[in-house]
Amino acid sequence: MNDLDAAKRHQQEALLAAQFGADAPATREFKRARTKAFLNDVVAFLRGYQNHLLEFGRLSGAVAVGEPVDLGLQEVPLEKIRGSVDRYRDFDLAFLPRHSALRDRWERVATARSQGLPMPPVELYKIGDIYFVRDGHHRVSVCRARGDKTIQAHVMELTSRVPLHPGLKPDDLPAVEAYADFLRVTEADKILPNVDLRLTQPKLYARLLRHIALFRYLNRKPGEKPREWRDAVRAWHEQLYTPIMEIIEKNRVMKRFPDRTPTDLYLWIVTNFRRLKKHLPREEEIEDIGDDLDCYLAPFINL
Prior knowledge:
The protein is of the alpha/beta class.
């Protein structure tokens, strides 16, 4: 959007504001939006998470690779717009206004929308499956408050080395950053494309990295140099990770741990191998266990 178009848009909105003054419908609409944002803040506080938009700069700096690609004009689902380039604290995760300083502009946009004036496309960045507003925050907020499902947008996409979904919250960013750092060091996203190695706790990535490095050092013949890193990561995946994952998937063990990832369980197994070996039943005892596995799975409960 050029400066002339922006000036025309602001002029139209100013004329509407002057014509209708303190427009009662738009004012009531803004008050409802603020009330909902307040309640969302209370719920977020009680449940222990931050209720503001995702920060584009922080997330893109951690996960983005390459240059942006212009995707042109698209109809974008509003529920997937979860972040902002420079105003991430002004709106909540539902894109409702978080303070009254947004009132004038918000009400002008709402009034223009009520009068049927055309709204120019908003400008968005896309990373993974999440969109971030570059220009058009108030338009997105008004459309969300009115229950619209989509909005027309000019989209620029950045490739992410980490899977991102619209349910991501600001509190999840440390885990995303830790996984991105792990992939940057190991290049596992390039060596093992489509393999999900996510862990639930950021601190566990250092342990997984040490585990792979130890495999690289030990998995060689006497006198040989350690394998090249790419070869070692690939061999680790084939010889250790995949066989254990097949056992986990075949026996549907993960249904007992809905808040954990398969890689969490893998790392626990290889870290506690000796203790686990002592804890598990002997071969002759397996037939007597039946379906009651809880006593043997108990150590995993507090992964």
